[in-house]
Write a structure and sequence with these properties.
Elements lengths: L2 H4 L2 E4 L5 E4 L1 E5 L5 E5 L2 E2 L14 H5 L4
The structure holds FE2/S2 (inorganic) cluster.
């Protein structure tokens, strides 16, 4: 596997969440450690399921 193939890929969606492409080990605010596949993280602040996106960015008309 060359270096480019091994790089973690992260995509910032216009006016939307951040996608981490792959399985990650995630430590939550309370210290719980979980594995999560292809997590979409909220960056608008409106999600009711933080740190994940729940689609609320569409409802609030989030613009980046
Ligand atoms: S980015 Fe989707 S709910 Fe915040």
């Amino acid at each position: 596997m060359d270096k480019k193939e091994s790089l973690l890929k992260v995509k910032v969606y216009p006016n939307g969440p951040i996608l981490v492409d792959g399985t990650v080990e995630l430590t939550l605010a309370d210290g719980t450690v979980i594995e999560k596949e292809n997590p979409h993280f909220c960056r608008c602040g409106a999600s009711k399921n933080k740190p994940y996106c729940d689609g609320s960015h569409v409802k609030i008309g989030f613009k980046d």
